[in-house]
Amino acid sequence: MAAAGERSARELSPLVSAKALVKRFGEVEAVRGIDVEVFKGEAFGFLGPNGAGKSSAMRMVGCVSPRSDGDLRVLDMDPQIDGPSIRARLGVVPQEDNLDTELSIRQNLQVYGRYFGLSRAHVRAKATELMEFAQLTERADDEVDTLSGGMKRRLTIARSLVNDPDLLLLDEPTTGLDPQARHLLWDRLFRLKQLGVTLLITTHYMDEAEQLCDRLVIMDNGRIVAEGSPPELIASYSTREVLELRFAPGESGDVASTVDGLADRVEVLPDRVLLYTENGEAALSATHARGVQPLSCLVRRSTLEDVFLRLTGRTLVD
Amino acid sequence: MAANTEVTGTARSRSVTLRILPPGLYAGRASKVLERSLLVSRKMWLVFVSGIVEPAVYLLAFQIGFGRLVTEVVGPGGEVMSYAAFVASALMVASAMNGAVYDATFNVFFKIRHARTYEGMLATPVGPVDIAMGEVSWSMLRGGLYAVAFLAIMTLLGLSGSPWVVLLVPVALLVAFTFAALGMACVTFIRTVSQFDYIQLAVMPLFLFSATFYPLSVYPEPLRPVVQLSPLYHGVELARQLSVGVVDPALLGHVGYLAALAALGLWVTSRRLAGLLLR
Ligand SMILES: Nc1ncnc2c1ncn2[C@@H]1O[C@H](COP(=O)(O)OP(=O)(O)OP(=O)(O)O)[C@@H](O)[C@H]1O
Ligand SMILES: [Mg+2]
């Protein structure tokens, strides 16, 4: 009985736990005191614009960047002391590929496996399996430099799986991939999740965050500005629907006063006016009734982008 | 998971090292870094050939030219030996130095500044100390290989008098290891390719003024301690003494000096790699 209780308690203890975590680069404070807990089997996201501090946070979790302040535990160990033991159980996809350009594709996977102390026979079989996974089998003996950007990305992702990690850190995994490859990767990540692999993902694509993440934090300027599941965040920071009215640049400002009161909230951007409302169609008829004549209009569901806009007053991707 | 078990498996052997090194910088995986270099080197046979041809040409030049002009010198044990043999053992050590420095500088610079090779490694259990030891070991093997080839040519030309010359192989390995460690430490400070000239600027006088071409006694008295600072000098003395079978306690001093510098080089390299890449 006691053992069973202990086990469930262990499963509940977070794989990553950060408290008031800070990262400074000289004067620059890249991460300004974040609290994060990631549990086993979760897909957890960091969503934020350029320079928000996502990569800095990921590198601290990956034990390749010492923390400047605060507490951090990964897999129940301290990165400052147990770096190698932690990294042995991590898979890392860095923001910028760092494949070994002096080795072939197959060798990249095999040699990487050897860094984890895996046997030759094991890495040989694993490399074959992972090349299949990344759809690079035909290119097995080619040089890395002959691959396209997207292929390199797929190889980097395959490489991160060579040690069957418990926790996978993906820093903007789909940047540079075409839509087809992105969806394929999402599918693969989803399958890994079902196998019990915990995922930590950074992205500035809201659709990616919505697709992949059970829970996420929105980061801006080194701080966490909101936390929750995608539907929760939308429910608490946005409305169900959004009416987007497009205007010629500069003209949107004049409309703001006209549409006043037609929606829960109105957001004025240089080329657009966004009306946050439960019923977009109704708001659309009402704006027409007031004589507003946009270039085009669109009723859509709220996304994380709207949450971000609400919280920071800025759009996520310019 | 297989990866986990091996980490705990090596834990005991690591504990000694951990006392001297900061935690988390060493994972006992230097051999895997070396393995990578061996794999890459299969494509670089041309570099090996050139590395062996160069010192061989030197040797021939000495055998044919200087060997005729200066026929004999007083060797380490006080016995007279041929000048060509006197210089040959020193040149062998110098070729070990050149091979090691070349490898530990150009190749390492490329990996640190351009290829991000080490960043990839550092995301695995491999730490900066593993990288430093693995890379320096590789440079040592390469420098050692040049030296062995050199020794073979020496023997062919009849310049290796005593059977003691087999001991020159470990000497060459030690010299190569030391220079690789020092060279790699220096390279971590280099930012642009043009700064490689500084390394050349350091290696050239070492080559010429480490009692390579004439014994220490030829230098003016006040200069001798300066010459004795040169790691190559200690390598040359080791090689020259062993080549004629003179074994005395001074050998230990030379080995100690080289080993201390090697340790210093490894320490600086590890620290610098951590500072550059683990920010
Ligand atoms: N090695 C470094 N040295 C100095 N400053 C750094 C370093 N790395 C990051 N920074 C700074 O820290 C801040 C956060 O950078 P970080 O890379 O973590 O952002 P990010 O959220 O990953 O952005 P992006 O979406 O562009 O990848 C930036 O202001 C950046 O300039
Ligand atoms: Mg980033």
From TrEMBL, chain A:
It is a peripheral membrane protein. Keywords: Antibiotic resistance, ATP-binding, Nucleotide-binding, Transport. GO terms for cellular component: plasma membrane. GO terms for biological process: response to antibiotic. This is Lipooligosaccharide transport system ATP-binding protein. One of its GO terms (molecular function) is ATP hydrolysis activity. Belongs to the ABC transporter superfamily. Residues 16-246 form the ABC transporter domain. It is found in: Cell membrane. It holds the Pfam family ABC_tran. InterPro entries: AAA+_ATPase, ABC_transporter-like_ATP-bd, ABC_transporter-like_CS, ABC_transporter_ATP-binding, P-loop_NTPase.
From TrEMBL, chain B:
Coiled coil: none annotated. The chain crosses the membrane at residues 45-66, 86-110, 143-161, 167-190, 197-216, 251-269. GO terms for molecular function: ABC-type transporter activity. Residues 46-276 form the ABC transmembrane type-2 domain. It comes from the Bacteria. It is found in: Cell membrane; Membrane. It is a multi-pass membrane protein. One of its GO terms (cellular component) is ATP-binding cassette (ABC) transporter complex. One of its GO terms (biological process) is response to antibiotic. Belongs to the ABC-2 integral membrane protein family. This is Transport permease protein.
